[in-house]
Design goal:
There is one protein chain. With 158 residues, the chain is α/β, with parallel strands linked by helices. The protein has a single domain, classed as Nucleotidyltransferase, domain 5, CATH 3.30.420.10. The chain contains 5 helices and 5 strands, in the order E-E-E-H-E-H-E-H-H-H. It has a 5-stranded mixed beta sheet. Helix 1 packs parallel to helix 2, helix 3 crosses helix 5 and helix 4 crosses helix 5.
Amino acid sequence: MIILGIDPGSRFCGYGIIQTEKNQIVAAGCGTIVIKPKLSFPEKLELVFGRISELIKEYQPNVLAIETVFLGKNLKSVLVLSQVRGVIILAAQLNKMQVYEYSPREIKKSVVGNGNASKQQVQYMIQKLIPLNKQPATNDASDGLAIAYCHFNKLRFL
């Protein structure tokens, strides 16, 4: 099974891809979609949709795991993030993929064992848990892997 994990964002979208066989991770990779600030908002959504669609075509994942919206103080950020998530989920749906959503707390607990873990703790544990030739270049990429790993853990314990 191939799992595509996405950490959605309006400036950076982190993604992680893990391939599993018999409850073992056999391959993994990650990266970051950089969204240029000078683009209009519709252009940003088109860019995210296009890059996610390319990742789906290239790696042919079975499922997409995505982080839910964190309800922070800034309502505008929540609305923007919701729209970014929408185009990501649409890309998965158009490719007949199952979509699973996980809260930040659920992801941290799955990776670190503590739902209040810091970003640094998550990044450290991902580097220990997933065999990578090259470490994640950004926190967003590491978070994408953490989301994919969270779904992998859910599957192992079903």
